[in-house]
Amino acid sequence: MIKMIKAELLYQEYLETEGINEETGECHAATVAICDGKPTAAWFGGTKEKNPNVRIWFARRDGEWTTPVAITPDDGEADWNPTLFAEDGVLTLIYKSGIDEGHWYSMKSISEDGGKTWSTPVELVPGDVGGRGPVKNQMIRLSDGALLAPGSTEDLVDRWESWTDRSEDNGETWKLSAPVAFELPDGTICNRKEELPKDGEGLIQPAVWEDQSHDGRVYMLARTNLNYVYRSESTDFGRTWSVARPTAMPNNNSGLGAAMTDCGVLGLICNPVSENWGDRTPLCLFLSENNGETYPVRIELETQPGVEFSYPSIVAEGNLLHMVYTCGRKKIGYALVRVEK
Length: 341
Known about the structure:
The protein is 0% helix and 50% strand. The protein is mostly beta strands. The chain has one domain: Neuraminidase, CATH 2.120.10.10. Strands 11, 12, 13, 14, 17, 18, 19 and 20 form an eight-stranded mixed β-sheet that branches. Strands 2, 3, 4, 5 and 6 form a five-stranded antiparallel β-sheet that branches. The radius of gyration is 18 Å and the shape is globular.
């Protein structure tokens, strides 16, 4: 028998990021992780996205949020899209660095003290150009012990494809899946971004989670320019993927996040706007008990018109869902929801 999902918004607050110094005019693309029971967040910030003074900033919550600090080198290259992964008291930061999405590469840094100090960043995959590993949403630990990172690639003529990177040695080396094929509105299947026309875009910035009832069955939700969130499935721990097809969830070609709670409820946070490059408001949390097929519960987190609430990140801590997101590129929002079933 299906039980009704119950959810409660416990609290909502905002991290002030503007004015820390003269170079923190914008902030965007936050990520969240729980390290030793405490929420931690990172994002990129600088005078403007793509500018060479954009770095990764970090804060942690211990009763209240600490003052944000820059944790990546001031090396004259823009930093982008951080992801945090926490396990056994260790925080792993993976982020992009480079002049643009077509030339960026992935960097990794480690903290063993809750984010107070960080190791010197190293390339995630030496010699990579285009960005291996997670591109926006954090990697997950699978039931077979492997790490699975949801990623995507953008070329210089705005064609996109999504894939996963899998590591069986705790992130020392990575093996890339084939691109995830997806169904176009006319019913044809696109297998690689090279099959798309210039400015064809496609699938990008996926989120992944593993089915609690079936080891090795992993699901993916992806942002698209096709007006809807797309969904794919793997039955072999993320090595191969089914053709991604549109769900009923609208998508405005902006980022989304997804995480699975201990009670089997999936949280999806996104802008439910069915228009390519449409408004990045409202921002809502949707809850599903069938791995993202349907969403009977909707919680509106932000509804103000004309303001960007976007690029959310979400992580589960038991049956708590921690979320961070962009607020007008001037603040980072944080929300906490408790789920029961």
